[in-house]
Amino acid sequence: MVCSQCGRTVHDHDRFCMYCGHALTNNKTSVESRMKEDSHIEEIRDEKRSKRSAVNHVNLKHEAKTLFDHTTKSIGKFAGSEEVLNLNLKDMFSEVFKFHSRDESEEIFIAGTKKTTPLLEEVSEEWGKPWLFSRVFVAFAITFLALWILSSTFENELAIPGLIFIGALTVPLTGLIFFFESNAFKNMSLFEVLKMFFVGGVISLISTMILYHFVTFSKDYYDYGAMTVFDALMVGLVEEMGKALIIIYFVNKNKTYKILNGLLIGGAIGAGFAMFESAGYILTFSLNYDESIINLVFLRAWTAIGTHLVWSAIIGAAIVIAKEHNNFGFRNAVDKRFLFFFLSSVILHSFWDTSITFFGSDNAKFILLSVTAWLLIFILMKAGLKQVNILQEEARQMKEI
């Protein structure tokens, strides 16, 4: 050891320097302190190196799947299904690009009558493979194209109303046929579904307009048409509540307790609402703001995939889940299962209407919100298919008694 005062070498056990008399205790303590500090710093460095090594070896695909499974399982609990969402979209839509005969199409369209509704034990709990919706889309797309040629090439103004109507109708009705095909119980006729689509859709607009009289918006909205976050939240709440009231009526009227039926009924009301609203927007903006009808049609068409159609379908399923075998009443409106999915639709709708963008793009926001909404739809479909098994098991037990 070296004396810090005179620099001469002394013994480690000496307390004072034999040359200058300087106390060596502090020096020794300082050396030990520095040694401990160096050791601590080295430990921190080792820990950081270990963390960096762990990060470099993380399997992002596995972590993402784990997060997805955990999230879908947690959400599924509100729908009565604690299973992870194992969804194979490639398999689900595998029938879309295959040839199907006219008889197969007609067999789907005649479902839901007394003679064509399958017995409960005949209902499949496997994921359906819908395909007819794609043919409906193609048929309407060809019709729209023909009307566009009439209006643009031949400058026939009489084709414009048809252009607006078919443009507003195509995607919502295509989505509705998808829900119709996905109803594993096949217990609702196309006539009943279309009745809810047209009549329920327009009545839900009326109920929404009535509810709008009970809310106020910001001065910016009234003066400039610019929505604040609060304004968007109010729009989402009012419109989803307006549609929910009509969905509740049709759910109670049909006395259904099946989740897949709830998705179909909600989807029918939402699709009708979307069609009438889109037609109104296209006409108004084209006349008052000199916007291109074609651009407006395409914007309203592709965004319709993730708006009223799916928001209302989510609410329809939530109503059925909360009410179970009874009619939906006030007590069900405060059921946490209903509130979770209802408020999810309200929040999705509100974010859609805000000026907030993702990565500076409205389209990116629309796509992300659409994907989120459809994720909830597929979680509810999973719960609906699990319910098939539960109902079949209950029926078997009743027969044994």
Automatic annotation (TrEMBL):
<keyword id="KW-0645">Protease</keyword>
<dbReference type="InterPro" id="IPR026870">
    <property type="entry name" value="Zinc_ribbon_dom"/>
</dbReference>
<dbReference type="GO" id="GO:0008237">
    <property type="term" value="F:metallopeptidase activity"/>
</dbReference>
<keyword id="KW-0482">Metalloprotease</keyword>
<keyword id="KW-0378">Hydrolase</keyword>
<dbReference type="GO" id="GO:0006508">
    <property type="term" value="P:proteolysis"/>
</dbReference>
<feature type="domain" description="Zinc-ribbon">
    <location>
        <begin position="3"/>
        <end position="24"/>
    </location>
</feature>
<dbReference type="InterPro" id="IPR026898">
    <property type="entry name" value="PrsW"/>
</dbReference>
<dbReference type="Pfam" id="PF13367">
    <property type="entry name" value="PrsW-protease"/>
</dbReference>
<dbReference type="Pfam" id="PF13240">
    <property type="entry name" value="Zn_Ribbon_1"/>
</dbReference>
<protein>
    <submittedName>
        <fullName>PrsW family intramembrane metalloprotease</fullName>
    </submittedName>
</protein>
